[in-house]
Amino acid sequence: MSRAFVFAAFALFVSACGAKPPPAPTPEQALALRPADARLAALYETSCHACHAIPETGAPLVHDRAAWDPRWKQGEAVLLDHTIQGFNAMPATGQCATCTPGDFEALIRFMAGREDSAT
Known about the structure:
Elements: H1 3-17, H2 27-32, H3 38-52, H4 65-72, H5 76-85, H6 101-111
Helix pairs in contact: 3-6, 5-6
């Protein structure tokens, strides 16, 4: 292998390691964000929005990858359990009595900015 190739591969590797998550939404943007699916948007509006769109609540803001990434690393099963059982200030079921586990999974992915992720 040529040195130029090794150097280029190393430079690409190092630059990928420094990739940063997208910037957090502004408070105004967080207030305006909704899932694309109308049913999920309605569930989000009546349960999740009150805490996850307002910075003062202490809940991780919708689409704030810097806040969600450490939680995401715990795994979706843990996040789902925390949502259903409650965790710290998070009330059990996020006060969504009509949400199914699938709804919770979709809402968690939306809020974590991972709508396109299955894991």
